[in-house]
Amino acid sequence: MRPANILTAITDIMAGIAIAGFLAHGLTDVQAVLQVTCLAIATIGLYGGGVVFNDIFDASLDRIERPERPIPSGIISKTEAVVLGVYLLLLGVLAAFTVGELSGFIAIGIAVAALVYNKWGKHHKVLGPFNMGLCRGLNLLLGISIVPASLPHYGWLAVVPVLYIASITMISRDEVHGGKKRTLVMAAIGYAIVCALILWQGFMKGEALKVGFYLVILLYLILTPLFKAMKEPTGPNIGKAVKGGIIGLIVMNAAWVAAFAIFPYPLAVLAFLPLSMLLSKAFAVT
């Protein structure tokens, strides 16, 4: 289920509800807390179910390349994994529908996009990264959908996580056998565009300095391993660059919250970072 990654998905929701204006005055009542909690449960189910099915569809290949994974190592059977994956996806969709119909249909879109990627998308060099990015973009929209009227105004911001995740996915394909410097440079360009878009939104909201603070942390997390991989594009170095990019999602989402919400919500999102880093030492991230 990739516990460290699931925390990054929860921060997607936090970023989305902040963008929607839901945190402008804080969580003022029990109903608001319940809505946020249900969306958090939804993304846990959707992300967890998606990566479980990733292992299910990759079981044959993992027996060769990653025999330590749960299914090829025999820790659980493929049937058990299917049951868990279906349960998690259903949990995600049902939890989203408790918030609203729009949220529920977006959750269905996330589940479908994840399954399409796991079965077919990952095998396409160009469409695959954007298919994976679509899952994250929809996850941000799932958070924004807490205020349906905000989607026409801010829905386009979903292109930012799409581009960010597409950049990560593009380089992740080389983490087993190593890759080329050109792919890493393209990912760096994608990261630069993402940071520029977030900083621009921070400027528009009059919070450029606060947003810039989080972007500096983000750039450190993603560029340190990326530059190392550029110098020596081996499988392990690329794997660290991918891991840095995934964990960096938490800081990226904290930057979104800094632009759209009051203090201390950005720090609350950033607090997920040390926990995610701790979990990444115990559980696989990629």
UniProtKB/TrEMBL annotation:
GO molecular function: transferase activity, transferring alkyl or aryl (other than methyl) groups
Keyword Cell membrane: yes
Record's keyword terms, sorted: Cell membrane, Membrane, Transferase, Transmembrane, Transmembrane helix
Compartment(s): Membrane
Entry's Gene Ontology cellular component terms: membrane
Transmembrane residue ranges: 7-27, 33-54, 75-96, 154-172, 184-203, 209-229, 241-259
NCBIfam families for the chain: prenyl_rel_EboC
Name of the protein described by the UniProt record: Polyprenyltransferase
